[in-house]
Write the structure tokens for this entry.
Amino acid sequence: MDTPSDDRATPAPTPPAPDHANPGRRKRLLLIFAVVVAVLALGYFLYDRVIASKRVSTDNAYVAAEVAQVTPLVAGQIVALNVSDTQSVRRGQVLMRLDDADARIAVAQAEADLATAERRYGQTAATGAALQAQADARGADIGSARAQLAVARGNLARAETDYRRRQALSGEGAVSGDELTAATNALATARANVALAEAGVTQAEATRTSAIRERAANTALTQGTTRATAPEVLAAQAKLAQARLSLDRTVIRAPIDGVVAQRSVQIGQRVAPGAVAMAIVPLDRLYVDANYKEGQLQKVRIGQPATLVSDLYGDDVVYHGRVVGLAGGTGSAFALIPAQNATGNWIKVVQRLPVRIALDPKELRAHPLRVGLSIDAEIDISADR
């Protein structure tokens, strides 16, 4: 005999109530969802209008600096090298020394040339005084020659008188022929002495004129100058200054404070003027070149504040800077091989323009950066509104 089935004795499970059975709960869920969506939309709108629309940011930014190149100004062999890469230096610190033997010899030669020029000037001045004395002496010679001329003319007058007297008496036979001949010879001698005296006066005057002109020529070399301002002395002083400058340039010093980088010389190496020996990076005068998209630059202006975050320190350190300049062209415009866009398969690429942002030196001293590090830059453009 079969046993009754247990299926009839077990009650069936109650099916879940349909959603339309509780319409109030469904409305509440939809209302909550709508409110959340509205709040999110409002938050995004407020963020875009209040915050995002007033700032432009980019992570395509890098630290840069005006690196100082250390270049010798004179040729020479390196005999001392006091720094190496990554070493911090102060302005004026000795970086390296060149062999100065030739420079010291040049200084000694220039000093000797200066002493010679000063003595030559003194000699020229003394010669001028001597020439003046000679000119004065020639003036005295002129007086003596004129006195001799006066004597000769007096003798000529007596000789003429004596000759005329004897010539007048010769017709009466009171004077012999020998006396008349002697008077004639005396007259000729007196006339020759006058001519000789006149020539002596002319020669003395010419000699005095020559002495005066020679003194004038000598005076022209020293007129209006002193030992310190004479042209030849100044030229010698300039050569001495050049020689001393070349000697000083054998000691090469740091032009700025910073860190040594790219040292390319060794002790014993001979360097030429203008050859780059090393570079110095000024860590307290760094700046950031932020490459912004062209669509972000509409309201970027010089002087706007900026905040920057370095990958080196993360969000814990925030740098503050200011826009100091916008580049004159995009990176592709100044590339070695510029892009050729006049082609049939041209595809538009959003261009970027470097924006230079100066950093606060105090913040750099507190948290040093290095050239080439990555930076997130954000510029506040609200001041343009």
